[in-house]
From TrEMBL:
<keyword id="KW-0695">RNA-directed DNA polymerase</keyword>
<protein>
    <submittedName>
        <fullName>Putative reverse transcriptase domain-containing protein</fullName>
    </submittedName>
</protein>
<keyword id="KW-0548">Nucleotidyltransferase</keyword>
<keyword id="KW-0808">Transferase</keyword>
<dbReference type="GO" id="GO:0003964">
    <property type="term" value="F:RNA-directed DNA polymerase activity"/>
</dbReference>
Amino acid sequence: MENAFEISECAKVRKVKFSTATLHGLGLTWWNSQVATLGHEVANTRSWVEVKQMMADEFCPTEEVQRFAEIIKGKTTSSRPVTHNEAVRMAHVLMEQKIQAKNETIAEGLKRKWENNNQGNNNNNNNN
C-alpha cells in the first residue's frame, strides 16, 4: 500500500480513503462496520498509521503471527537472512504459485475430459 501511495502521490490526509477504497471481502465488511460504528467522518479522518494498526490487530493477531513464525522457523531458505515480513511475503508468493499450478492442472484435466467426450461423440456419429 505504501508503494501505491508513493506512485499515486497520495496526500497524507487521503491515505485512509484511498486505501479503504481498495478493500473487498472481509476487509471491506470490517471497514464498513468501522464506519457504521464510528461514523463516516471520524473513520475517514483517522491517520493512516492508526488505521493500518487497526487492520493489523483485526487481521494479523499477534498470537497468530507468532504461531506462523514458529511453523516456518527453519523451513525458509534464502541467500540472505529472512525477516519475518520477507518470510510472510515469500509464503504468499508460494501459495499463489501453488494455487495457479492447481488451477492449471484442473483446467488441463477438464480440457482432456472435454476432448475425450468430444472424440467419443465423433466416433458414435461415424458409427451411425
